[in-house]
């Protein structure tokens, strides 16, 4: 089973452009399968919306002031790496214009030589939607339609147009096309029934988050049943789950190692860890973490 890593690239507190490049090279050298990039366009002093994936993640979001745009950051990472996969965990699709988003996805896939995984979600922060002038209501339906439109834009066929509720366009030329055909894997984030439906309709992968081992097993069973009913197979789907370290000590990293070991019999293809090393002593901590959890083993 592979181990990916989610990292924060904020542009502050030492996490500047050089940090992005040097960290990417180090994580590839250590043997991490993928670098997964989170997305928030803006942050807020306080939230009425509830973060749905646990206290640790919620506290981190409330403490952050910003992160680099994932497509800009991943393009920079693509330029200094050659084998590690790159992905969004996750891109909030409904907040973006689908023509521009399809173009950005294709560009990163081309610049990385076909190493991009398009992790997508609907988002949880109504404040962020409001700031961007996008309705929070029916964001799931908007996401589904945007994905359908982007598949048309990525197609080898002439783009004859699209006529939907949320997006429409006349015949046009949409380039570049992604290296991965028909498009980069769409990895659907979330743990809900809507996630299952969206994977069945659009996905080649699942990106769960903050789940106990028994919860992972139940979700995979539900997904398997839904895929079979739709004439698809669970074997078509890359299964992964995100895991946030409970702290920054070696005992917390050993806890991650136990979690990874428990996940392997479930049929997961990847666990995406979030150890959140401090900038000071980053390389030594990353090397020790990789050793403990078995990266590259």
Give a short summary of the structure.
The protein has 297 residues and is α/β, with parallel strands linked by helices. It has ten helices and eleven strands. The strands form two sheets. The chain has an eight-stranded parallel barrel with strand order 1-2-3-5-8-9-10-11, surrounded by five helices. Strands 6-7 form a two-stranded antiparallel sheet.
Number of DSSP strand runs: 11
The CATH class name reads Alpha Beta
What's the story with the biggest beta sheet?
8 strands, parallel, barrel
Per the principal axes of the C-alpha atoms, what is the gross shape?
Answer: globular
Secondary structure elements and their pairing?
Blueprint: E1 2-6, H1 17-30, E2 34-37, H2 55-63, H3 70-80, E3 85-88, E4 91-92, H4 98-111, E5 116-121, H5 126-132, H6 139-154, E6 162-163, E7 168-169, E8 186-189, H7 193-202, E9 205-209, H8 213-229, E10 238-244, H9 250-263, E11 270-274, H10 282-293
Parallel strand pairs: 1-2, 1-11, 2-3, 3-5, 4-5, 5-8, 8-9, 9-10, 10-11
Antiparallel strand pairs: 6-7
InterPro entries: Lucif-like_OxRdtase_Rv2161c (IPR019921), Luciferase-like_dom (IPR011251), Luciferase-like_sf (IPR036661), SsuD_RutA_monooxygenase (IPR050172)
Domain Luciferase-like: 16-243
Protein name: Putative F420-dependent oxidoreductase
